Amino acid sequence: MRSEHGRVDVLINNAGITGTFAPLERATSDDVLDVLDTNLLGVMRVTNAFVPLLELSENARIVNVSSGVGSFQDTIEFDYFDWQVVPPVYAVSKTALNLLTLKYSRALPAMRVNAADPGYTRTDLNAGAGAHDVSQGTTSTSLVTYLPNRGPRPKTRSPCSPAGPSARTAPR
């Protein structure tokens, strides 16, 4: 990457798995490890691997694709407690990702580090049952990717689903 492009301007971490659909009290440690390995540690591995190339950019951005189900507020407000709809281990992984994003935003102050919630988007993750298509789901990711360096830090919602998509950005 360095020899061909010299630097990386934008890193979007968008890998994720739901894991098992089971009540939390029936989830095994292996179930939890599988989800956290992809949804949290995968983001950390990829981000840390790309930081040296991002540091060469004048306007580096890191966007972690998260979910409203990882928000304490949204979980309570929108009643995200039905394990058949929102796998609890997935929700826990996205809560952890939100905090990881906040920690990176402080650890890498020269970079714009944010999380984006695409909302309930039709993908393989939900067997195509989402409320809107991928092009609508990318709105929040695009929004935080193209924020000006000193621009506002938005928190937006779309009518696509009750909780999203939204752009969750870390305060500075």
Automatic annotation (TrEMBL):
Keyword annotations from UniProtKB, A to Z: NADP, Oxidoreductase
Report the protein name in the record.
SDR family NAD(P)-dependent oxidoreductase
Q: Which family does it belong to?
A: Belongs to the short-chain dehydrogenases/reductases (SDR) family.
Composition bias type Polar residues, residue spans: 135-144
Q: Where is this region: Disordered?
A: 127-172
Q: Select a single GO molecular function from the record's annotations and give it.
A: oxidoreductase activity
Tree of life domain: Bacteria
**Entry-linked InterPro entries:** SDR_fam (IPR002347)
Q: Pfam families annotated for this entry?
A: adh_short
Source species of the chain: Nocardioides panacis
